[in-house]
Amino acid sequence: MDTQRWAAVDDYFTEQLVPQDEPLLAALEANKAAGLPPIDVAPNLGKLLYLLAKITGARRILEIGTLGGYSTIWLARALPEDGKVITLEYQPRHAEIASHNIRRAGLETKVTILVGAALDTLPTLAGSAPFDMIFIDADKQNNPAYLEWALTYSRSGTLIIGDNVVRSGKITDAGDTDPNLRGLREFLTRVGNDDRLEATAIQTVGAKGWDGLAIARVK
Ligand code: SAH
Ligand code: DHB
Ligand code: MG
Fold first, then answer.
1. Which ligand minimizes its atom distance to the CA of 98?
2. Got the DSSP string for the chain?
3. How many domains does the chain fold into?
4. Which ligand is nearest to the CA of 40?
5. Shortest-distance Cα residue to atom 3 of ligand 2
6. Which residue has the least CA distance to atom 6 on ligand 2?
7. What is the pTM of this model?
8. Exposed, middle or buried by CB within 10 Å (0-12, 13-18, 19+), for 81?
9. Domain of 61: which CATH number?
C-alpha cells in the first residue's frame, strides 16, 4: 500500500481546493498541542461535509463525536445566519479544547457542545429535532444505537453520514470481533435493511490512511 502517495495527493488537493484559514489551522495546532489523537477528518473531508451541508441547505446539524471541533467548524461554516450545530462529546477536556477552537472561529453562537455520553445526551434533543444532517463520528460500537436516534430525529431528506466505515479494510474481516468493527458492521447492515433509508458507502485513501464514509438519505 502506498500511504505516502495517498497523503501526497491529499495534500495536493487540499492545497489546490481547500484553503484553510487561521481558525482551521489553529484548531488543528491546538488539538496537536493538547495531545488529542489526530483523528479529526482530513481537510478535504471537512470540506465535503461543508459542501454537503450547503448543498442540502442544512440549518440544523447534529454531530456525534466532537473531539477538538475541527469537523464542527466545517459544518457550522456551512450554516445560514440562524443555523445551529449541536455536537456531542464524552470527554470534558475534548469539549473544552473544541470550545476554544470554535470561539476562535467566531462560531460560538452557532454551536452547542453537549458534554456526556451521547446515549445520555441524545434523549434530551427532541426539542431541537428534526435535524437536516447528522454526522456520526464517535465510539463506533454504539453506531447501531446512534442510527436509531438519528432516525428518530430525522425528516424526509435528512442526510445521515457515518465516518470510518472501512478501517483499513477490517470492516470485511468477519473474524475481527473488535466492538467498534462489530458496531460498524451492524450499523451498515441496519442502514442497508431499513426501508426508510437509501444509502451508499465509499472508500477513501489519503492523509488519514484507508477508510471511508457511509451516506444515507431518509426517504
Ligand atoms: N468529529 C471529529 C472527530 C471525532 S473523534 C472531527 O472530525 O474533528 C471521536 C470523538 O468521540 C472523541 O473526541 C471521543 O472522545 C468521542 N466519544 C467517544 N465515545 C463517546 C460517547 N459515548 N459519547 C460522545 N462522544 C464520544
Ligand atoms: C478513530 C476514530 C475516528 O473517528 C477516526 O476518524 C479515525 C480513527 C479511532 O478511534 O481510531
Ligand atoms: Mg472519524
1. 1
2. --HHHHHHHHHHHHHHH----HHHHHHHHHHHHTT--S-SPPHHHHHHHHHHHHHTT-SEEEEE--TTSHHHHHHHHTS-TT-EEEEEES-HHHHHHHHHHHHHTT-TTTEEEEES-HHHHGGG-GGGPPPSEEEE-S-GGGHHHHHHHHHHT--TT-EEEEE-SSTTTGGG-TT---HHHHHHHHHHHHHHH-TTEEEEEEEEEETTEEEEEEEEEE-
3. 1
4. 1
5. 39
6. 39
7. 0.98
8. exposed
9. 3.40.50.150
The whole domain housing 183 covers 3-218
**pLDDT tens, per residue, the chain with 219 residues:** 799 999 999 999 999 999 999 999 999 999 999 999 999 999 999 999 999 999 999 999 999 999 999 999 999 999 999 999 999 999 999 999 999 999 999 999 999 999 999 999 999 999 999 999 999 999 999 999 999 999 999 999 999 999 999 999 999 999 999 999 999 999 999 999 999 999 999 999 999 999 999 999 999
In DSSP terms, which residues pair with 203 in a beta bridge?
Answer: 212
**Alpha-carbon gap, residue 42 to 207, rounded angstroms:** 7
Q: Tell how far the Cα of 157 is from the centroid of ligand 3, in angstroms.
A: 23
pLDDT of residue 136: 99
Inter-residue contact 138 to 149 (CB < 8 Å) = no
